[in-house]
Amino acid sequence: MLTLYSTQSSGNSYKVRLMLAKLGRPFRLVEVDIFAGEHRTPEFLAMNLEGRVPLLDVDGRFLAESNAILFHLAEGTPLLPADAFARAEVLRWMFFEQNSHEPGIATARFWLRQVRGGRELRAHDVDRWMEEGYAALKVMERHLAARHYFVGDALTIADIALFAHTHVAEEGDFSLAAFPAVRGWLARVAAEPGHVDIEWRPEIRGAEPVLA
User: Fold this and answer.
1) What is the pLDDT of residues 33-50, one digit of tens each?
2) pTM of the predicted model, to two decimals?
3) How many other C-beta atoms lie within 10 A of the C-beta of residue 46?
4) Torsion sign (Cα): 3, 25, 88, 102
5) Which of 4, 21, 41, 59 is the most buried (most CB within 10 A)?
6) SS3 category, 201
């Protein structure tokens, strides 16, 4: 049984919950309250020295970093292409998500929506977040203008990685009004089989979690 250490409002944690739901894999969910410092306890740091969520327990082995977890779970599924070049393309967009997309869009959402007083605490960073976030959205818009998904003709973990923070970008003060291709892609991803929203969590019936 997989165990996922997750924070419900975290886009990175949502990536993994969405992936597990799509695969129909039962898992035990452990909520980690990062605002109460539960990710900095000795017990959690013994599992992940960086003290971050999500964290996946795979038979006593701990895997951190949301995109690494997606890659592990996708092995042998249609969400990770078998073709070597296509797999590299998937990784290219997942690196883009972490390096060019998340630092603006996800960080703005965290500080402006989730941290009390965050807008005042990080007022000097807002312009940079907006510049970086909109630059990433423009790249996505150009790429999606002539295609339905980021790699090939079907959903991959590259789409899941980018969907997680993009679909809540407006919570970080980003407007998607000027990005019709991005909006269309978001709708396609949300319409895919097995999709769940960011509030979803597995039901517990008896002693086992059930994907509902």
Assistant:
1) 999 999 999 999 999 999
2) 0.94
3) 9
4) negative
5) 4
6) coil
